[in-house]
Amino acid sequence: MRALLWTATAVALVALPGAPGAQSSDALPMALEQMLAAARALTPPPGERREPRVGDVAASGDLGYLTGPRRLERDTGGTVHGVYLTIWKRERDGRFGPVLDVTTPTPGAPSFPTGFTRAAPAGRFAEYDDTTPPLSAADSLLNAALRTDQAKGYEPRLSGQVRLHRPGLTPLVGRTAILRWVAGQPAFEGADTRYSEAARSGDLGYTQGTYLHGRAGGGERGTYVRLWIRERGGQWVLALDALQPDPA
């Protein structure tokens, strides 16, 4: 996984205006405004540019994510396009900081809606109790299914506006497009959960792990990060699934 190399500038805990073309601050929760402000205050590595275009925050305001296009201008010339996913968490001092980041290369500049879009699903889970299934179990069950059949593994676990980020592929959005694509893909050779964390409100969480495509020793290895939301019925479903291959 690529290290977090940005430099953060302190961001006050107030509702800040969005970027030009974004939804108005009245349309976004204060916690999401704070997370966006923290993202815009980061200093990226030389030659890199990121734009937060889609994201959300948990009802408890302690965990969220942002995704959007990433562009890297190489010193030797040429531009590398991709899409990034950053997990944000509220720190002890009340400010948001990035805790996990993956970038997925794309064949060209990825397309996103103009401005910023909150990926807030309807009917989100609202009541957490001891009977609620743990996120780690949902991720492990998905990994087991993906090692047999990708389409059958993903089909019951996709939200309506789910995103799929795959190396060398334009990001796929929505159940129909994703299931059509994965139907033609082989099963994973390996997929193992390494970490999971959910918001205090139990409506949003993320998992991180390792994967292998192709035969052992000769396939593509890397890191996956998944964003999960909990539906009102209590089940975890995917909001975003991203792969970042290890360096060659």
Detail the topology: elements first, then pairings.
Blueprint: H1 30-40, E1 48-50, E2 54-57, E3 63-73, E4 79-90, E5 96-105, E6 117-118, H2 135-146, H3 150-154, E7 158-165, E8 172-173, H4 175-182, E9 190-198, E10 204-213, E11 220-230, E12 236-245
Parallel strand pairs: 2-6, 7-12
Antiparallel strand pairs: 1-3, 2-3, 3-4, 4-5, 7-8, 9-10, 10-11, 11-12
Q: Can you describe what's shown?
A:
The protein is 15% helix and 37% strand. The chain is globular. Strands 1, 2, 3, 4, 5 and 6 form a 6-stranded mixed β-sheet that branches. It is mainly beta and 248 residues long. The protein has helices at residues 30-40, 135-146, 150-154, 175-182, and strands at 48-50, 54-57, 63-73, 79-90, 96-105, 117-118, 158-165, 172-173, 190-198, 204-213, 220-230, 236-245. It is built from 4 helices and 12 strands; from the N terminus they run αββββββααββαββββ. The two termini are 13 Å apart. It folds into 2 domains: 25-118; 135-245, Nuclear Transport Factor 2, Chain: A (Roll), CATH 3.10.450. The model is unreliable at 1-26 (pLDDT under 50). The longest helix is centred in the middle third of the chain and has 12 residues, at 135-146.
